Amino acid sequence: MALIRPTEAIDSARRTARRTGLGPGRAVALLLLVGLGALVPLLGPSVAVHSTGEATTPDSGVVALLRAALFAALSVQLGEVFVSGLARRLPDAPAGRPGEWAPYAAVVGFAAAATAGELAPHGHGSRSGVLALLEAIAFAVAGLCALSRRPARQLWPLAAIVLAEALRAHPPTEHTPLIGSGLTVVHLTCSALWAGGLLNVLRTLRRWGGSEAGTALLGLYARVAAVLFAGVTATGLCSSLRRLPSESVLDQLTTTAYGRVLLAKVLLVGAVALLALWARTRLRRAADPLTACSPARMEIVTLGVVVAVSGLLTALPLPIKG
Fold it and tell me: What keyword terms does UniProt attach to this protein (predicted)?
């Protein structure tokens, strides 16, 4: 049996790290970021309701964390399908692709949806519980599709998850629930494609290196992201106006837990928009267009915080309309 030299072992490890797109240092950094991000939904409810006179349920932090995990899993899976479609439009795209995260995301989404259903009032026997169970099943199906020869088939179960989440967020007792559900469908889809798409574009660029195809892929994503940002902004504004009392919107942004977290989310999205504009400017004017990856990396970290804050938002009491 031939002996493996130390230098050969090191080269092999490096090649493996390039294939997976995640070295040991980056893996540790990613775990730290995920851990810090988890503190936002876990500790957020008690911080948000401080001095408002409102109360949260004992498991509101866990529920917020589960919803954030569900949103993140959905974003990763939709993002992979989205970027794979963009890459196929490039005639000179390298054959290499980063390792798929979709199957792992499906496991996270399945666990988050199933647990959220258990924590719903009356468990899986309630409307929210049934919708959570449907989401868990859809995540399982999406995971199987991700492992198949046609991973694009994930789109159908992922669309079912978006629809179920929209129906869960707007029960029949709400005023015009179908309008609210329609806004949530568009908002959640655009948000997931925006965040998940950027994550997978950056992973693909790392796999491809400094190729011209990488620049083309980033530019193609940037054009679509502008439309996604418009969809997120418009539907988010409409949804917020529907839920906040129209006569005291500005006051509710600082005196209610929901308003405070919503204001924080708006500020974060504004920061993301500035980072996206910075990246787009570098992409167009810099001598090396791939220097746009630096602000894009900051953008994806900020988008991760936005996902955590979105999960927190779903676990807070809505302002009472007069």
Answer: Cell membrane, Membrane, Transmembrane, Transmembrane helix
**3-state SS record for 147-159:** HCCCHHHHHHHHH
Global pTM value: 0.88
> What DSSP string describes 181-198?
HHHHHHHHHHHHHHHHHH
| pLDDT value at residue 125 | 75
Supply the pLDDT for residue 8: 46
Predicted local distance difference test score (pLDDT) of residue 322 = 53
pLDDT along the chain (322 residues), means of 10: 42 42 66 84 91 87 95 96 92 80 96 89 79 96 94 95 95 89 96 96 87 88 95 94 80 90 95 95 87 92 94 88 58
CA dihedral sign of residues 304, 241, 186, 317: positive
CA triple 92-93-95, angle to 5 deg:
120
Structure tokens at 273: 């928009």
Check if the beta carbon of residue 245 is closer than 8 Å to that of residue 319.
yes
- What are the two backbone dihedrals, phi and then psi, of residue 211, each rounded to the nearest 5 degrees? -80, 160
Of the candidates 80, 116, 115, the one whose C-alpha atom is nearest the C-alpha of residue 98 is 80
Q: What are the φ/ψ torsions at residue 319 (nearest 5 degrees)?
A: -60, 145
Q: How many alpha carbons fall within 13 Å on the CB side of residue 234?
A: 11
For residues 60 and 312, what is the distance between their CA atoms, to the nearest angstrom? 8
DSSP class per residue in 255-271: HSHHHHHHHHHHHHHHH
Contact 309, 65 (CB under 8 A): no
pLDDT at position 4: 41
What type of residue sits at position 107?
Answer: V
CA 104 to chain centre: 14
- Is 245 in contact with 322 (CB distance < 8 Å)? yes
Distances (CA, A) of 68 to 5, 81, 168, 213: 45, 20, 15, 33
Shortest CA distance to 142 belongs to which of 192, 105, 195, 185? Answer: 105
